[in-house]
Amino acid sequence: MSSTPFICGRCSRAMRLASLSRAVGLPPTQRQLSHSARLALSATKASSTAPEPQPTANQDDSPESTSKVSEPPDREPGAMSRRLQEATEEALLTGGRAGQRAVEDAGFSEELKQRLLDKIAHAKFQSENSAALAQASVTSKLPGSAGEGTRAMASGQVWTGEETTEDAVLRMLNDARKPLAPGLRGKQKIPDPIVDMRIRREPTRSAGHRAASARDKASVYAGMGLKDATGLSEKEREDMKREFRERFTPDARAMPNTITGLAALANERIENAIARGQFKNIPRGKGVERDTRADNPFIDTTEYIMNKMIKRQEIVPPWIEKQQELLKTARTFRARLRNDWKRHAARMISAQGGSLQQKMDRANAYAAAEEVHNPRKRNVDSISVPTNSTDDVVMVKMRQQALAAAESDSPSSPEATPTTEESRPVITRPFRDPTWEAAERSYMELAINNLNAITRSYNLMAPELAKKPYFSLERELNNCYADCAPEVAEEIKIRAAGPTKPLDPFGGPGTRSTGIMGSFGANKAKVYDDRKPKYGFKEFWRDLWKKDGEK
């Protein structure tokens, strides 16, 4: 039983490294092995080289002779050798100076080191100039049957993790100006018609076709010398050319059957009409109205378009609609109040008696007194007053100013118009009727409460500068008296000059109605009712078909 010598871990690693270096073809590292390791190594060599002739003693001590004898020079490296070679190349490529120093320290031969460096330089050259090599078809990685797309991908730049400037600019251009759809990129190229090169017989034409396509060769030959013809004026020469030109024109002009042809025909006719001067005396149309705010750089385009859409569609905010409702209700109430008071005042002043002129003078005197005691200088509706109270402070100040002005002007008024005072009655107080006010107070208070309710709801939604004052019955009556006083005299005149309306709308006996019912008759019609039965067509029909024996 043979005893196996003991091998330590350090020696086993050294033996493994020495065997790998021999497999790759590198010189072994100069390390001192123990006695047991040398015995194991010599036993391994002896077993591996047993069938071969024994070398000499000098050759056993040389490692180069051992590698030459044990390995053939052209044997393909194994998987482990290739893996070690790739690891070495990777260390040289990625390790930089440190990788090269590690290779030098490992004890590589100069020949192997130069071979590795040449391979690295060749790989770097191919990676840097891969596009040029692919385009020139000098690279052996692409087969000859590779398509254009494959060659473009192979010749493209390797992705490094960052987008190049050219690709970024191209992407931004594509995003800013997207390409058109395939249907909008233009007309397709019409392929050329296929020409049949086969020899064919010329189609035979009938005598009618030959006669229709024949030319008057004699006249054409005679017209060839028109330029040198003598005795013809320019006008005669043009007429002759036109005659020859019309001789060969078809009877009917071919009409185009496409949109482009029709447009060209229409443009041709329009240009001919312009050349004849048919568009010179056309009256000018209405100019285009342009909004100056459309091109204003200080107005936001979105805001301008939205405001224009709202204005065109008549869309208003809710408080504007409420404001229109308030103004409409107030206008209706004031119009009715003024109409009723003017008619009542004219009737009451006319009831005092006198001629028409005296009635009008009395109404003018009341108007003068109204102007003194209740003046109306401004439109108070447009004045912004506090909305938390119904007292009109502005009107109180205006009345005080008017009274002070009237008292200062009162001494000079008798001297200025002595003749007017003699013919016009002197009235110191304006015209009022407490009975009419008491009768109409319930309606007026209800209307004022309704207006104040609408005003309150409007002020809740309107901005501060657009709020309206509340309505007061006393203020509305004073405004009504001040507005109607100058118009009472004219109302009396109209009522006196107008026709009297009869109580009976159909007119009495002997009178003619002037209304719409007057067109149906001149006088009142009388209807007589006779209770005696009459014999008509119904009775005749009944007697005609009456059977014998029936009554």
TrEMBL record:
Residue ranges with Low complexity bias: 36-50, 404-420
Compositionally biased residues, Polar residues: 55-69
Coiled coil: none
Domain annotation DnaJ homologue subfamily C member 28 conserved: ranges: 265-334
Residue ranges of the region described as Disordered: 28-83, 141-160, 402-429
Record-linked Pfam families: DJC28_CD
The name this protein goes by in its record: DnaJ homologue subfamily C member 28 conserved domain-containing protein
Naturally occurring in which organism (per UniProt): Podospora australis
